């Protein structure tokens, strides 16, 4: 017979909550330090150097997942680090996320940065100003690739409901050197390894595979 785990006493709970307060203060101090470093990095960049670096973002989250253990859910860990990345980029230079029907995924990826919701995917894509560091988050459920695309695709994610989304950036967003590519082939969106591209493909961009799936409401 398994013995029941004794409930913590009021004194135990008080001590644990005090310990949480200490941890929170340490976390806040480290977060301030992280953002101060990000701000300094932004100051060293030239006006034309991108603040969003897609492959670096994938690497940072993959590193955290590789070392992760304990009670914190993986989805929580990913969301925290994605919001940290999005906020750090905004500290370096303000940018806007443009969406049509993918608001939930955009919030998971970027947190409380400026997001503009458009009636259609083509309008969201068209809102990427020339030379800006803005991003469009678009769902494969909307055929946004049927019209000429001047932005470049730099990331792909899968949602827990099976939908796939593409992140496209203006010229102020960094490109990816990832091993996967997104192209339009025979009027359809086509995802493949870079080595499998053909001369007839209209290449939209490259990306590194994401190490996580984005949770959305069921």
From TrEMBL:
A Pfam family in this protein? CM_2
What organism is this sequence from? Acuticoccus sediminis
Looking up InterPro entries in the UniProt record yields: Chorismate_II_sf, CM_dom_sf, CM_II_prokaryot
Which EC number(s) does UniProt give? 5.4.99.5
Q: Which SUPFAM superfamilies match?
A: Chorismate mutase II (SSF48600)
Query: PROSITE patterns from the xrefs?
Result: CHORISMATE_MUT_2 (PS51168)
Q: Please give the coiled-coil regions recorded for this protein.
A: none
Query: Know the name of this protein?
Result: chorismate mutase
Task: Tell me the superkingdom of the source.
Answer: Bacteria
* GO molecular function per UniProt: chorismate mutase activity
Tell me the Gene Ontology biological-process terms attached to this UniProt entry: chorismate metabolic process
Residue ranges constituting the Chorismate mutase domain according to the UniProt record: 7-96
